[in-house]
Each structure stands twice: as structure tokens, then as C-alpha cells.
Amino acid sequence: MQETYKTVAYDSRQSRPMDNRFETKIAVLLRDDLESWQRLNVTAFLVSGLGTELPEVIGEPYEDADGTPYLPMIRQPVMIFEASKETLTAAHSRALARALPRSVFTSDLFTTGNDRDNRAAVRAVAAGELDLVGLAVYGPRNGVDKVVKGARMHP
After folding, report:
1. Could you write out the DSSP letters of every residue in 12-23?
2. Nearest-CA neighbor of 61 among 48, 73, 49?
3. Is 61 helix (H, G, I), strand (E, B) or coil?
4. How many angstroms separate the CA atoms of 60 and 37, rounded?
5. What does each C-alpha distance from 124 to 12, 42, 91, 113, 127 come to in angstroms?
6. Can you point out the beta strands (E) in the chain?
7. Number of other residues whose CB lies within 10 A of the CB of residue 62
8. 113 in Cβ contact with 87 (< 8 Å)
9. How far apart are CA 77 and CA 100, in angstroms?
10. Phi-psi region of 133 (alpha: psi -120 to 50; beta: other; left: phi over 0)
11. Residue 152 reports pLDDT greater than 90
12. pTM for the predicted model, two decimal places
């Protein structure tokens, strides 16, 4: 699916897009009681899977004026939200109900040391019982907006 979009203008006072014409949205929802380092770590993990499963979210590789190549990145803004544990749990339920592509980060993942143990920790808990600290979701803008309803933009 080739998506049309317009260049995003930024409000210099808020460092936020004033007008986002993407038909899709990427949102990361973080639990509001996380430490600063945890928020950064969780966000990085949550968005890392998007490009492997959803190649359309990845742009073209970069290159500087010297011809040095750089890896491609996600091609659209990633909106970061924060919410209470209850709001995060409700957002997870809405993402599941809408069958939107998603990734999760549970509190258990702070104590594991590798990818295999991370997957085992998530697999050991039923969806409704996950102790979520982060959720990333991708899909049509209006659908993602409904999933993150009740959350606030991360400061």
C-alpha cells in the first residue's frame, strides 16, 4: 500500500507536528509510573518490531554528503503517550479487539536478560493478566486514536 502524505509542519513552541497527513499512526503508550530510563528502553523495544512485520513503516536508507550509508528508520512520527496502569490495560484490550498490529512490554521483562526469556515471560501469562508497562500499536489513525483514548501525550 503506497501511502500519500504531506510534509509535516512543526510548532516550534511544542516540538510537535501541527498537521499530520499520514493515513496511519504509530503510537507508544507507556505506564506513567516508569523511571525515565525505563521509558526510553521500553519505547526502543516496542518500536523495534514494527519494521520486521510491517515493512511499509520503514523509509529509505540514509546517506550523508560524504556518501556514508545509514540504516533506514521509521518514516513517520511515533506518537508517545503515557497513562495509568488501568488505561494501559484498557488500551491493550481495544487494540486486541480491533486486531491492530501491536507489541507489548511487561514488567517481567525488566528482570530477564535475553530475548528467549523475554518471550517466555510473556507466553507464561494470559493476555488479560499481563502486567503491561508499554504498548505500541499501528494502524489507521482513527483506530489508533480510539485505542489510546484516555491517555495523554508524553511530556
Report:
1. TTTTEES----S
2. 73
3. coil
4. 29
5. 45, 20, 21, 16, 10
6. 10-11, 16-17, 24-31, 62-63, 69-70, 78-83, 102-106, 132-140, 152-153
7. 11
8. no
9. 18
10. alpha
11. no
12. 0.82
Q: Which residue has the cell 486514536?
A: 145
- 57 close to 138: Cβ distance less than 8 angstroms: yes
- In 3-state terms, what secondary structure has residue 92? helix
**Percentages of the chain per state (helix, strand, coil), in multiples of 5:** 35, 25, 40
Cβ neighbours around 45 below 10 Å, total = 16
pLDDT in tens, 71-125: 999 999 999 999 999 999 999 999 999 999 999 999 999 999 899 999 999 999 9
Strand partners, 27: 79, 137
Q: Could you identify the residue written with the cell 494502524? A: 139
Task: Label the pairing between strands 152-153 and 78-83.
Answer: antiparallel
What pLDDT is recorded for position 19? 53
Burial category of 141 from C-beta neighbours within 10 Å (exposed 0-12, middle 13-18, buried 19 and up): middle
Q: Give the C-alpha separation, 70 to 57, whole Å.
A: 17
The three-class DSSP label of residue 34 is coil
Q: Please state, in angstroms and rounded to a whole number, the distance separating the CA atoms of residues 130 and 147.
A: 17
